[in-house]
Write a structure and sequence with these properties.
By secondary structure, the protein is an all-beta fold. The protein contains no helices and nine strands. A five-stranded antiparallel beta sheet has the order 1-2-6-5-9, with no helix packed on it. A four-stranded antiparallel beta sheet has the order 4-3-7-8, with no helix packed on it. It is globular, with a radius of gyration of 14 Å.
């Protein structure tokens, strides 16, 4: 897995691009199911897990709790992103310094 890689969900329309890759190999999931290479065909019969339905938003960045993984959402969907069962959080914009 390297920076710039693209992944797509196996259970919804979500597509992401890897912005920051961890040093070790990890399994990125969307909707509770491992994400696929964009060229791979979606397996049939899979559904979004009930606890992974918070969705993704176009143009938003999602990061792991440790900060070593960052994904950019290029196509939104119904499933939420996670790594090893831990949900990724929406990366907030940095506050600008006060101009007072």
């Amino acid at each position: 897995m390297k920076t710039g890689s693209r992944l797509r969900s196996a259970v919804c329309a979500t597509e992401v691009m890897l912005v920051k890759a961890p040093a070790t190999e990890v399994e990125i999931c969307c909707g509770g199911v491992p994400m696929l290479d964009p060229a791979a065909t979606k397996p049939s019969g899979l559904a979004i897990a009930a606890d992974a339905r918070s969705g993704t938003a176009l143009g938003k960045r999602y990061v792991s709790a440790s900060g070593d993984l960052e994904l950019l959402c290029t196509k939104p969907g119904e499933g939420s992103l996670s790594v090893a069962g831990v949900p990724l959080v929406l990366k907030e914009a940095k506050a600008l310094p006060s101009s007072d």
